[in-house]
Amino acid sequence: MLAICSDLDETADRRVYLEIMRFLNTTETTAMGPGVGLEVGNSIYFDMPPEQFAYWNTDDAGREMVRALIRSGHIDCLHSYGDLATTRQHAIRALDELDRNNCKLEVWIDHGTAATNFDSTIMQGHGDEIGHEAYHADLTIGYGIKYVWRARVSSITGQDIPGNLNGILNWKHPVKSGRTLFKEAAKRKLARKGNHKYAMHGPNETLCPTVLRDKSPIYEFMRCNPHWGGVTSCEQGRHIGEVLTSNMLDRLVEQGGTCVLYTHLGKIDDPNIPFNKAAVEAFRRLGEAFRGGSILVTTTRRLLGYRRAVREITFNTTCDEKGLCINLNTRVDESHLGKLPDVDLSGLTFYVPTPEETHLKINGQDFLSLKVNEPDYTGRPSVSLPWIRLQFPES
Ligand SMILES: [Zn+2]
To answer: 4 — phi, psi (to 5°)?
Structure first.
């Protein structure tokens, strides 16, 4: 499973932003040719210097576009409140706007050295420091942020599997890739010795339940940039062709992990044609892997939601007159339709011997739209809760 998790830094304007999103999420004609029809999210911030695309900087049409993309799930990350947001008042103004427009975001990503960041070391944030003028964690977590990124990036392709350092070394670039390998190994060693800063590198997991400094409960998540040059190398739209290589995608499929890819898609050379040839080829390659069923490409929020949901479920199996019954227990989400089982379970799959004679109960209720899957590369058939794709808004 892979999410392209892009910080919007340096995106010039709403046209560039939308053209990137249309190319990635639709099959419409774009400046780069037909879109690749993936499911890729994006991020937004509010208070930025005027030359950068941001919610308050753009025009009414730009703000309407952002709201539509938040509602459809394609803008899924709040990239701090921006460089110029220095006080709680800035956070209140942004959250009011989001709430008033029924726009929900669940993912927070620290940006640069914005005062509203949560990480106090590398990102110099004060957002969760009670008493500081930039303190907003109570409001932001209260609004609905569940997942927080505080600058943790791994060089390992794929998390939620045993961390394999083998893919990092690149024989064409032995010195620099050797340094990257050494750094990743050192972070892991520090984590195992109890180092707080690199704790997430120990278990190589995407998610870790924790608290902010004001004790607000969150899931922290780790991103990945598997480029041989290191975690801050080629993390830009102009270089994504050097990151999403066929080797990298093969390694991810082979390892079977999840990857929240750290990048900045708005850092490009030509605003009229945002992605260069290598980038376009990389996304077409990813599109093939997606349609071929080897990599599930989705938004950061959906990937994190799925990982969370899988952590939280319990299940057992019984045999009854209809065959095998999977009894799944999960959290209940309140919605305008009433109480529903966790929506983030979409895609959950069980290998079973006889899919046609298998049924599923969620919290005691029969689940009627179980999907039957043909045997996969392991030779085993399975059943799934259907994966429902997001609908890109009409533009
Ligand atoms: Zn940023």
So the answer is: -80, 110
Query: Using an 8 Å Cβ cutoff, are 264 and 237 in contact?
Result: yes
Report CA(44)–ligand 1 centroid distance (Å): 10
Interval between CA 6 and ligand 1 midpoint (Å): 9
pLDDT, one tens digit per residue, over 3-60 is 999 999 999 999 999 999 999 999 999 999 999 999 999 999 999 999 999 999 999 9
How far away, in angstroms, is 98 Cα from ligand 1 center? 20
Structure tokens at 70: 């938040």
Sheet holding 358-362, edge to edge: 314-320, 323-329, 358-362, 365-367
Question: How sure is the predictor about 268, in pLDDT bands with cuts at 50, 70 and 90?
Answer: very high
Given a cut of 70, whether residue 336 has pLDDT beyond it is no
Distance (angstroms) between ligand 1 centre and the Cα of 392 equals 24
Per-residue model confidence as pLDDT tens digits over 158-175: 999 988 888 888 889 998
C-beta of residue 374 within 8 angstroms of C-beta of residue 346: no
Tell me the whole-structure pTM to 2 decimals.
0.95
Query: 334 C-alpha to center of ligand 1: Å?
Result: 33
Residue 59 Cα to ligand 1 middle (Å): 21
139 CA to centre of ligand 1 in angstroms: 21
The segment(s) of the chain belonging to CATH 3.20.110 are: 2-303
Pairwise CA distance, residues 182 & 330, whole Å: 41
Count the neighbouring beta carbons within 10 Å of the beta carbon of residue 126: 21
111 Cα–ligand 1 center, Å: 4
Question: For residue 127, how far is its CA from the centre of ligand 1 (angstroms)?
Answer: 16
Interval between CA 67 and ligand 1 midpoint (Å): 20
How far does the centroid of ligand 1 lie from the alpha carbon of residue 178, in Å?
Answer: 27
CATH code of 2-303, in short, is: 3.20.110
